[in-house]
Design goal:
single chain, alpha/beta, TIM Barrel, 8-stranded parallel sheet, globular, binds zinc ion, Amidohydrolase-related domain-containing protein, Amidohydro-rel
Length: 281
């Protein structure tokens, strides 16, 4: 029996799937009909060996003109399943001083331990100095950052990609600038980072504070260099994540096990690396 911590779960609600993602998702994924109650999610994940899961808020209002999945809502779900969910809030960096005020309330008001950032969907570069006061607030609050890296299904297939620019999610120079300027922020780069997966591997090897979650892809389809590094040099830096409802935890975990990695390495990827990073005992 495995034990696992999923560091990347979206709320499977109609509000998130249709509201927050809306037309930006419709051409890319058949996930719009995947709404389900949180109690079903929790039992499905628990059956697959997942003990804890990071649940993500979403606010890209300035860019998308679509409603947020609010920090209040995510906090209320975590309150109903406090032994299972770990809440990560969202702030729209374009909200300026209000975003900074909100980040300063994350721990005290919501009990959040991290922030989700999505540079393409929120239309910013993490290297842009205009946002450094916000990154500074995140660092001084001691929050973990989960930052989207590489290609995204958000906007994929739309004319002009709906204005969603992939270049904001490049490991070099965009994410590196963030990681080196704010070295006390534990930074989880979300997804293998394709088509810059080798760049992302280099960034994670180079920076002690950079981690990679392998969410959104079945391990079966990961590029060979990612698989090679996950079982060797980066075995302490790579984390399990589903990007639920994109992939189910049982499929992700069984596809990982098919590689036949050493048991110790599997336990690090599925559980120990995240436990250390998130302070789960
Ligand atoms: Zn995601």
């Amino acid at each position: 029996m495995v034990r696992a911590i999923d560091v990347h779960v979206h709320p499977p609600t109609t509000e998130y799937l249709e509201g927050s993602g809306g037309s930006y998702f419709s051409n890319a994924f058949g996930i719009m009909d995947k709404a389900e109650p949180f109690s079903d999610l929790v039992s499905k994940f628990t059956d697959a060996g997942v003990e804890r899961a990071v649940l993500l808020a979403w606010d890209a209002e300035t860019m998308t003109r679509q409603p947020a999945t609010s920090n209040e809502f995510i906090a209320s779900v975590v309150e109903q399943h406090p032994d299972f969910f770990i809440g990560f809030g969202s702030i729209d960096p374009w909200k300026g001083r209000e975003a900074i005020r909100e980040v300063r309330r994350f721990k005290s008001r919501y009990g959040f331990t991290g922030v989700k950032l999505h540079p393409p969907a929120q239309s910013f570069s993490p290297a842009d100095p205009r946002f450094f006061p916000l990154w500074d607030a995140i660092q001084s609050e001691g929050l973990v950052v989960l930052m989207h890296a590489g290609h995204t299904g958000f906007g994929a297939g739309l004319p002009g990609a709906g204005g969603v620019r992939l270049r904001h999610a490049r490991p070099f120079p965009d994410i590196e600038e963030f990681a080196t300027s704010f070295p006390r922020i534990p930074l989880i780069c979300a997804h293998p980072g394709w088509p810059w997966h080798d760049d992302l591997l280099a960034l994670a090897m180079h920076n002690a504070n950079v981690y990679i979650d392998l969410s959104g892809w079945s391990p079966k389809y990961l590029p060979p260099s990612v698989v090679q590094h996950a079982k060797s040099l980066l075995q302490d830096k790579v984390l399990f994540g589903t990007d639920y409802p994109v992939i189910s935890p049982e499929r992700w975990i069984s596809d990982l096990q098919a590689y036949g990695f050493k048991e110790d390495v599997v336990d690090k990827i599925l559980y120990r690396n995240a436990a250390r990073l998130l302070g789960v005992s």
